[in-house]
Amino acid sequence: MSQPAAVVMDVEAIKALLPHRYPFLLVDRVVELEPGQRIVALKNVTADEPFFVGHFPSYAVMPGVLIIEALAQAGAIMMLRSMPDPGSRIPFFAAIDGARFRRQVVPGDQLRLEVTVIRSRGNTCKLAGKAWVADQLAAEAEIMAMLADRA
After folding, report:
1. Is 55 a catalytic residue?
2. Catalytic residue among 55, 103, 126, 130
3. What domains are defined for the chain?
């Protein structure tokens, strides 16, 4: 029997960094973190997710764009944790490249979101993200993000 992953950040710590809230907060826990370098986070996909009502009622599958969003949120956590005043910044997408969807994600799955920095300059960064369900790759993409000043 495997041990549960250690919790580096719980949902309350995540909410202290990210502006996202239910139903759009897509990261439940951070289990590994090297600020500015690498993060591993988890998203528990439950049957009562609001997007399953319309995608698809008779065949529940998590929308691919939300898997990419979950990867981006994990990346934003990693980048914000590397900053001296993370509350002064807000993350935004700048580009998504090479997105590929390899496996359907359904209720009961747990997404393991692995994101690493390809490069970081100033307020922008390019990230490589992979979303896994157990040992199966569900999705991958390169994400370009920028951290803007909060108004």
Report:
1. yes
2. 55
3. 11-42+53-104+115-149 (3.10.129.10)
